[in-house]
């Protein structure tokens, strides 16, 4: 049984955790560059100065005594997102979509008071949601509105586009669609749908929920295969451009598409997960090997995207 | 796997195995421990003086029935060591100037065996006059003429003085059945008789006094009971029957025999170790059971190669040996953890938490240890439910949890969950590890939810359970302690595990969809 699986994984070129760590993250991602991606405020800053669009930063609190100031600064906002700067896997993110005086409505419909908001900010600063539990910064950014083209395939949350960029070349992408089961979160292991996205045209090619193939969104029943990510060209471009700022060779870039502002870089990840292979029903290894064989270091961004698309097309023909 | 990883791993493995094979093949060191070997016992005396001359005397054991003593060695800081023999008793004397704290260590190996003395079927011979005079006399601790003792003798239905064995049996039954044992009881013979209960020493003194009062030559033997890794002071009685001393203990229940694991240090009821010119004195016996027979031990301790002889861990003091025997097992534990994490792919709290948990539970039984882990995890969950509404900051909240865990551990100690081990190893260390465990548990519970936290707790204890047998294996202990070069083999295997780029078991589970025929749900 397991031998059969091993053979199938080898045939498809599925990348396992050990191989990702030794062959890719350890080899291409120098430890000293990690802070750039692990600290979301730094990522935001770098992207902004390079002209890459990101969700607007509205307020920051780095210490407990700054929390009242942070609350004052957002006093006029009706919708916002409170986040930890070192959070992982979407932990500690509080989305407010409406307010009524001093009461706030969270995404999902629960109402909370200002005290809850202050407590959440304090928890963030204490490091409750940080990787490794160290002292963290809390910040508030603008709330992204789901693009109308994605409303039918996402329930109660924000879908995002994940692009794996290897040595500056996009090799695989998927979109993560929140469901009722994932409680609006775009995390595959919490029940979100992962759909493989064709690097060529931005259309969904295959989709899974909790490792099982699905063809329609489980809540809206909207067909998934063939659905397209809006502004995919631009989204892919800023994803690759953002990874160029990091010095890392194997990165996952997360892009969201705002209804008004279009694609924005949300965050970068130095240890991107491997579930993207399930969403695409394709292994990463053939594409990574192809990049190693065909890359000419220093070529411009447009050529790298073209190379990635060609590799993906080739790989798809061969492996799907 | 990369070629250089294979080569480097192989180099380490070859280095370790090479030394191992050389030591076992050419030097005849045993690979498999042959079983229960001799005990290594160490007396550690600490003296404090203010520069004046002084000396310390300690009785030393001799070979005799039930014990053979060998390989004695002594170490003292600047004191002169002599052995005297007084009335057949070997006494070690360390003398010199005592300034500051002076430590004296005297170690020996002893092979103990059970002794059974056949009691005479006919009436025994009268004891010689000088034995009778010396060993039926009253002393401070054996008050033969005390009224209570005499009254008790008068009350007992004793057999004729010509049949001492019957008399001994009556008095033995009296002390073993009518005089209760109490840890906090009296050490005094008369008080023990009056209270009808006493400490082990009190009961032994009473028994010996009664024998003397009944006209049977008797004496007290002071020694050590060797059990596990402890050497507890013990005393028993001896009576002169038919030209020899025969051991009896109504306290530990042996009659005309002596069980294995006892060492006689000296006879007489007085204190064994005395000092002059010292402000303060303290002493303690350590013991450690060798898993090798005597001649195997010799091969391990004094290999023919002078360098190896100097490097032999068997020459270290007993407490250090005991610690090293445990520490040298840690690499094996780490190897198992590495296999579970990189070969299977399970997530645990911290990298070495499973090893530490297994290490902490070494003294307790596995079931009891796992129960302790379950209790603290349950407390953490309950506490979260209670404290969630208060919205406390992280560190104080964790500290509240620590307090509750401390209370729980105190409760478990009261219920006797930790056994009778020594404080540091049996209580403090498990407590630290359990506290760390519960901290990680709470953090994961807060960050990733209860399910994740429980899953990781389960895997952590599962891996700890897999590691646990190693810390209890005499073979593993003997191999790692006798052949520390095997750590290089472990390093080599770890290099291989670290260079393993194949799939983890959980990768297979996660990506098993790839093995199904490609379906097109659209």
Structure keywords:
heterodimer, A: about 325 residues, alpha+beta, 2 domains, six-stranded antiparallel sheet, 10 helices, globular, B: about 525 residues, C8orf32 fold
Care to describe what's here?
Chain A is of the alpha+beta class and 320 residues long. Chain A folds into two domains: 2-51 and 147-319, D-amino Acid Aminotransferase, Chain A, domain 1; 57-141, no CATH class. Chain A has ten helices and 13 strands. In chain A, the strands form two sheets. In chain A, strands 11-10-9-8-7-12-13 form a seven-stranded antiparallel sheet. Chain A has a six-stranded antiparallel sheet with strand order 1-6-2-3-4-5, sandwiched between helices. In chain A, helix 9 (285-294) packs across helix 10. The two termini of chain A are 22 Å apart. The mean pLDDT of chain A is 88. Chain B has 522 residues and is an alpha+beta fold. Chain B folds into four domains: 33-37 and 290-314, no CATH class; 42-110; 115-259, C8orf32 fold; 321-482, no CATH class. In chain B, helix 10 crosses helix 15 (450-471), helix 12 runs antiparallel to helix 15 and helix 13 packs across helix 14. The radius of gyration of chain B is 30 Å and the shape is globular. Classes of the chains: A alpha+beta (320), B alpha+beta (522). At the A-B interface, helix 1, helix 2, helix 6 and strand 11 of A face helix 14 and helix 18 of B.
